[in-house]
Amino acid sequence: MGTLVGHVAPGFVLLVIGFWHLLNHIKLHVQNHKTYHFLPWFPSIKIRYLELYLIMIACSMSIAMELFIGPDRHQPFDTDGTIPSNHLHNFEHSFISLTFFVYAAFAILLDKFVPNAQYELTHLLKGIAFGQQLLLFHLHSADHMGIEGQYHKLLQILILISFITTLMGIGY
């Protein structure tokens, strides 16, 4: 994800998912604002878990790009089994994708097997994913200066807002 495309493509995917959620929440609130319930994900008409499957596919592609396709020799580790210091950022990016993959997988499992409190647990999982992303962005941004450092600070603010609003959605 060290290239412009590697930053723009995941950002575009998150933007599309964000607009999908915004439009669905507006639609649900307008239809019946008195019984509106904040949903963590939205089932599609033909494939119930399409949104979650797409998140899992995008995260898998991101992890593969970071750890196996992008690095030299297509290996994330050195020949002695250690992580080279110039590949640490690849692991940071992969961990961010991994937490969203885990969120999507558990959202499917919770929907299938735990009908009571499934949305609250799913919101908690999403909150944990945003919290972990905030921590990694904070640690990842420690050495960024100039415009890139300011961009990372802005991203940390957006992640913090997402984290707080997701946790607020647990009780709503």
Automatic annotation (TrEMBL):
The keyword Transmembrane applies. It comes from Lactuca saligna (Willowleaf lettuce). It is a multi-pass membrane protein. InterPro entries: DUF716. GO terms for cellular component: membrane. Pfam families: DUF716. It is found in: Membrane. The chain crosses the membrane at residues 6-23, 52-71, 91-110, 154-171. This is Uncharacterized protein. Belongs to the TMEM45 family. Keywords: Membrane, Transmembrane, Transmembrane helix.
